[in-house]
């Protein structure tokens, strides 16, 4: 691995991409600590540290997704979630709106239009979230007052909402810059950075929790390290369907006749089901922020944020999105049609509709165990945190580690493809 990293920095183009990625992530983390003007963030930090009860759980969840930016009421308080939520909405709409579905099939041109729609929806969701946060911070729960700031309160309200929205747009822009000019998926890397930023604080809090804090922390770290290899095994696991190509004569040359395979990943969707499920469960918390005085919304948000309802919904949503996203990115009918046109076939299976059904059956069979595995990895640590209240489990539990391992593997794969283009060895042997 060390050799691969050194080779990556030897290649000028790849080195430039890596440095751009690291530089943008550093800028993002700096922005997470830039407070909005007029906000007494010191008072809010104290409120976050001393808060208890249902709203505290909700805000802790929101702060975790924002990488700690929310507790400082920073420029990037909204985090990446408005963009993720907008992406989920657009992808679901493709399944029910024919025009969007056709647009997605138009290739790069259609994808650019969908990306533009996602940006517009992100701005709308950011505006709604920003107003909700402003109302929450000015509510009796936090009691932030703009009185005595030397400016009209209405103007400060507008500045605060505008700052939140601008921050969300900047995050979206930074993520797209990484995707376009850097290495890996920008939005995934920003989530990765948010999770990593909470790790040191979580370790210190876990150690200082009680007299057995150090021992518990060591045990948690050992379990986390032990879980990583099975996650990597599942993430890189494949079901290889053999493909035979018929022989044909082209001029004086014999073409075809070789045997290859169609690789189908055990976890085709990657970390997307985790992110999507977390985003949907994040919506009640958003509503609780927007309506802090509506009791039934607070009760529902607290029930969904933790406890048995959260575990059941997380498990079910992860499995659902695993199948949903797999169906979005892998079309058995198109695959079977392409094989038929190229003269390829699966031994013992008729070309055309029979091949599509066979591939679909294989896809369904291998998606289920992969989805159950990642769902268990995501839910079990939440159950442990509910009973132990260990901050390390909360910050670096199943969901976090799955996202981190998935993003790390995806980024390493992209770097490896760049290395092999220049005849260097990669990370994976």
Q: How many domains make up the coordinates? A: 1
Radius of gyration over all CA atoms, rounded: 24 Å
Low-confidence stretches: none
**Helix and strand pattern:** HHHHHHHHHHEEEEHHHHEHHH
CATH topology: Preprotein translocase SecY subunit
Q: Can you count the beta strands?
A: 5
> What's the overall geometry?
globular
Distance between the termini: 10 Å
| Major sheet summary line | 3 strands, antiparallel
CATH C-level name? Mainly Alpha
Percent of residues in beta strands? 5-15%
CATH superfamily: SecY subunit domain
Structural class: mainly alpha
> Which CATH architecture?
Orthogonal Bundle
Residues in helix, %: over 70%
Q: Taking all residues together, what is the mean pLDDT?
A: 78
With strands numbered from the N-terminus, the spatial order across the biggest sheet is: 4-1-5
């Amino acid at each position: 691995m060390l050799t691969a990293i050194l080779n990556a920095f030897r290649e000028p183009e790849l080195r430039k991409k890596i440095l751009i990625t690291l530089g943008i992530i550093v800028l993002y983390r700096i922005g997470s600590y830039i407070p909005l003007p007029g906000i007494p963030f010191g008072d809010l930090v104290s409120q976050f540290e001393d808060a208890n009860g249902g709203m505290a759980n909700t805000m802790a969840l929101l702060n975790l997704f924002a990488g700690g930016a929310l507790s400082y009421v920073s420029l990037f308080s909204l985090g990446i979630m408005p963009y993720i939520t907008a992406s989920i909405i657009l992808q679901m709409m493709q399944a029910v709106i024919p025009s969007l579905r056709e647009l997605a099939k138009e290739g790069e041109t259609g994808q650019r239009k969908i990306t533009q729609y996602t940006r517009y929806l992100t701005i709308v969701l950011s505006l709604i979230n920003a107003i909700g946060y402003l109302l929450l911070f000015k509510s009796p729960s936090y009691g932030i007052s703009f009185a005595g700031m030397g400016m009209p309160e209405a103007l400060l309200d507008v500045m605060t909402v505008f700052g939140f929205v601008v921050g969300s747009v900047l995050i979206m822009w930074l993520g797209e810059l990484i995707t376009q000019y850097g290495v890996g998926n920008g939005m995934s890397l920003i989530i990765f950075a948010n999770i990593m930023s909470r790790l040191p604080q979580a370790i210190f809090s876990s150690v200082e929790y009680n007299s057995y804090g150090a021992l518990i922390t060591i045990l948690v770290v050992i379990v986390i390290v032990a879980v990583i290899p099975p996650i990597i095994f599942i993430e890189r696991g494949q079901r290889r369907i053999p493909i035979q190509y018929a022989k044909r004569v082209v001029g004086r040359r014999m073409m075809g006749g070789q045997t290859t395979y169609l690789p189908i990943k055990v976890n085709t969707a990657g970390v997307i089901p985790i992110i999507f499920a977390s985003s949907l469960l994040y919506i009640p918390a958003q509503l609780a922020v927007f309506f802090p005085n509506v009791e039934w919304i607070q009760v529902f948000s607290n029930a969904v944020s933790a406890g048995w309802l959260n575990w059941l919904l997380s498990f079910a949503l992860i499995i659902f999105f695993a199948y949903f996203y797999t169906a979005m990115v892998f079309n058995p009918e198109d695959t079977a049609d392409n094989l038929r046109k190229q003269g390829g076939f699966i031994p013992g299976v008729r070309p055309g509709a029979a091949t599509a059904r066979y591939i679909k059956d294989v896809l369904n069979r291998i998606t289920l165990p992969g989805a159950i595995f990642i769902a268990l990895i995501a839910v079990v640590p939440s159950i442990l945190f509910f009973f132990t209240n260990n901050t390390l489990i909360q910050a670096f539990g199943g969901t976090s580690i799955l996202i981190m391992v998935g993003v790390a593997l995806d980024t390493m794969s992209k770097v490896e493809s760049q290395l092999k283009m220049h005849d260097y060895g990669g990370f994976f042997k």
